[in-house]
Request: fold
Amino acid sequence: MNKMNSINKSHYEKSLKTLYTIFQDMSETTTQVSKWRCPYKNVKSNCTASFGCRNQQTIIKSNQHYLKCIGSDNLDYRDAWENSPKR
Reply:
């Protein structure tokens, strides 16, 4: 095996550990944010979920691609979603 194809095991393990820490931090942040902001709400307050939610706008204009999210960002959204799709 030449030098170009060899893997530095300690460097590899350190890189994996760094990635794990980054993803763990991202996951923890996402969990906290999901307690007050719907994870399916995009930056324009459009709902990107493909299932029913009590916070989806009920009247949709024909030119809209997404439902509007009318929920408050001061709510815990985790129990808002329904099991059966409305669309």
Summary: Residues 26 and 64 are 31 Å apart (CA to CA). The longest strand covers residues 46-47. The mean pLDDT is 78. Residues 8-79 form one domain.
